[in-house]
Specification:
3 helices; 149 residues; single chain
Length: 149
Amino acid sequence: MARFKPLCAAALALLVAPAIASCAPGGATETGAAALSPKQLERLDKQLAGKVPGEPIRCLPNYRTSETIRISDDILLYRSSSSLIYRNNLRGACPGLARDSDIMVVRQFGSSTCEGDFFHLVDRSSGIRGPTCVLGEFVPYRKPAGDAG
């Protein structure tokens, strides 16, 4: 009977893990945040510091962004200005996106990038096409009104 105890303990751990995860602090439960390395989390925090999230939007007109920042394999930031950044949690991981060495080729229809649009990565040196990835909603992060910093 002793050899079944480790199996029972593993099964119990699988049952209890979701309940324990639900007790995690608010920032850690945000989509994609739990899988971030300390360096990625620091970079995300630095970019979003002093900004508060707004209501998600489905499409982001191209004229609104000046820079795309890769945080991890499933989080992109689109900088509009020093006081406005859009966060996009992809609809799944995009292996290799965080390396920031591959070229992002966005498949776009019209003058906006929208939730559900596809993009793929292309290796810079070999030209080999990598994974196809799907964008999620765009969440605006703005500095609060009256915040000069």
